[in-house]
Structure formats: structure tokens, C-alpha cells
Amino acid sequence: MNPDSAIELARRGELYPAVILHGSEDGERQRIAVDIAQALLCERPPEARPCGGECTHCRRIAWPDGEAAFHPDFSVLQRDLRTVTSVAATKAFLRAAQVAPFEARGQVFVIANAETLSGEAANSLLKTLEEP
Fold this sequence. Notes:
The chain is mainly alpha-helical. 39% of the residues lie in helices and 6% in strands. The model has no long low-confidence stretch (mean pLDDT 88).
């Protein structure tokens, strides 16, 4: 699926529950993840999503690279200075999936560089995805 069709499906509320972004550079995948999150969480009617920063949700969704924007319903799991993403970081990330959204109508979770998950972290993620 190309990025434009993924954003269109998100806009209409028909996107799959999980999407894998692969290929391109990290920055491009990050931009697409933010665009999809904005299309999913935007306050505007479906045909106007994403609004490009006019609503509070779109303004606050940004990749966590030191930017001031923060949205409580958009979470990113990234590898820190270690060589792998730890099970503790993964479990803390997954705890947010157990609560209802704070502001938006849903939540968006992004796992950056899933190949860096440790074996235990990957098993923890898989267990969470398999449980109802």
C-alpha cells in the first residue's frame, strides 16, 4: 500500500488496525507515520482530514525529536542509546494501550525500528497484540 492510499483509508476510518511502513529513509517513514496519525485523530470531517495543523490534534502530533509538540494519544517507541529496545521500555509503552484515549477519538502507537526490539521485548509486544 502506498502512503497516499494509507492516508486516504485513515481519513475515511477504514485503515487496518496495524500498518507496517518499510522502505525509504527513516525521516520519510516518520513523516508518513505522523501524516497517518493526523488523518486518524484530526477533529475535522473525514473529507477535510488531516487539516494540516488547524485543529489542536494535528498541531500537537509530531515525531518526538525534541520538538515541543506533544499529543497524549500519539505514542512512539524508539530505541534509546542502547543497541536494542528493552523489554521495560516496551512494557511501559504498551501500558498506554490499556487505557482509553485522553483527548482524541482513538490512539496511535508507532514502533520505530522494530528490528531493534530485544527478544523479550518482541515477545511482550506479541503477547499484548494477541490478547483481547
